[in-house]
Amino acid sequence: MKELSKRSACPISCSLDIWGDKWSLLVVRDLMYAKECTYGHFLKSGEKIATNILASRLLTLEEQGIISKSEHPASKAKVLYKLTQKGIDLLPLMIEINLWADKYFDLPIERKTELKEVKKDKVKFIQAAIKDLQKSIH
User: How many CA atoms lie within 13 A of 13 on its CB side?
Assistant: First the structure.
């Protein structure tokens, strides 16, 4: 794993050095919902990430052990990206970001429905979601 230079020993600062830019958590988000993605899949997301930025974020996330890549079973020209356990461990953070956004933004109905389930029993929801994501890495 490539060592990042740290701005400080602060845990928030160290974490932001890996996934704190405007795009990295969107890559993680896509992998949490799709479980595996190709480069082209990321390019089709609604946020319209530029190819050079996407390539850079995928490399950083891979170097930091957040995602892994493997050969695509149907095409030698493509690779599949998946979350690693380290990436899956970002799920509670992603849930909290969604809950915060639900409080301050008008979210799509499908996201509101999911968050309604989260609010019923957050711990149980997170445990089940982590278990489901772990199936894709084994």
Answer: 6
